[in-house]
Amino acid sequence: AQSVTQPDIHITVSEGASLELRCNYSYGATPYLFWYVQSPGQGLQLLLKYFSGDTLVQGIKGFEAEFKRSQSSFNLRKPSVHWSDAAEYFCAVTTSGTYKYIFGTGTRLKVLA
Amino acid sequence: EPEVTQTPSHQVTQMGQEVILRCVPISNHLYFYWYRQILGQKVEFLVSFYNNEISEKSEIFDDQFSVERPDGSNFTLKIRSTKLEDSAMYFCASNAGGTDTQYFGPGTRLTVL
Question: What is the number of CB-based contacts under 8 A between chain A and chain B?
Fold first, then answer.
C-alpha cells in the first residue's frame, strides 16, 4: 500500500543549528513529493516540491530537500534554523493517475532560543 | 498572491446535525479537494472534484458526505448527520490540474458535541 513515513514525531533544535527532517515513502509509481509546513492555527503552506530533474530542490524560507530514489527518501534540510521555523512539517506524495496526496504523520519542530 | 479561503474558521455543532463547510478556491483552478485532519493525526484525503463531478474519493467519504460547486466560486462539503468522530480540521485545496501543486486553505475546525 502507498504510504509516507516521518519517523520523528518531535524534534528539538537550538536556534542557528542545522536541521534535517526525514521522510520515506512507499509508492509503486514515480512519486511527486512535497513538503508542507503548518504553523499553529494556520493552514498548510508549501515549502518545496520535487517532480523531476535535479534531485536537490530549493524551497522557501531557506529550506531544501533531496530526493534519493534508492532510499525512497525525501529529507528536508535547513542549514541554520530560526525561532520562527517552529511548526509542524508534513511530507506528502502523489503520482500521476491519482489526485490525492498521501501525507505523513508530521514532525513537530521546537526551536530553543 | 491568490489564496484559498475557507469559512467558517470554527464550527461547533450537535451530533446528528447537518453542517456545510465552505471554500473559495483560487479563481483559475479547475480541481478541488477536501482533506481532514483529526487532532494529532495525519492529514487524510477525502475527495477530489473536477468538472462538476467527483473524480476520486476515499473510503472515509461515505454517503454522509457530499460536495458541490453551487456557483462559479464556492466549493462546499456537506456532512448530513454529524458524528462525534467527524470532529476534525477540514482543509480545502485547489490546483490547476493533475499533479500540479495543491494549494491549501487555512482550514475549518469542526467540533461535534
Answer: 51
In the stretch 59-88 of chain B, residues with CB closer than 8 A to chain A read none
Q: How far apart are CA A23 and CA A68, in angstroms?
A: 11
CA dist., res. B109 & res. A34, Å (int): 24
Q: E-strand spans in chain A?
A: 3-5, 10-14, 19-21, 24-26, 32-38, 44-50, 56-58, 64-68, 73-78, 87-94, 102-103, 107-112
Rounded Cα distance, A112 and A107, in Å: 16
Closest CA to A107 of A11, A31, A15, A25: A11
The candidate with the shortest Cα–Cα distance to A83, out of A113, A108, A44, is: A113
- Predicted confidence at residue A27, as pLDDT, reads 79
> Is the pLDDT confidence value at B2 over 90?
no
> For residues A90 and A76, what is the distance between their CA atoms, to the nearest angstrom?
10
- Residues B43, A90: C-beta atoms closer than 8 Å: yes
Q: What is the pLDDT of residue B73?
A: 87
Chain B residues in contact with A100 (beta carbon < 8 A): 33, 45, 48, 56, 58
Interchain CB contact of B51 with A (< 8 Å): no
Assign residue B38 a region: left if phi > 0, alpha if psi is -120 to 50, beta otherwise?
A: beta
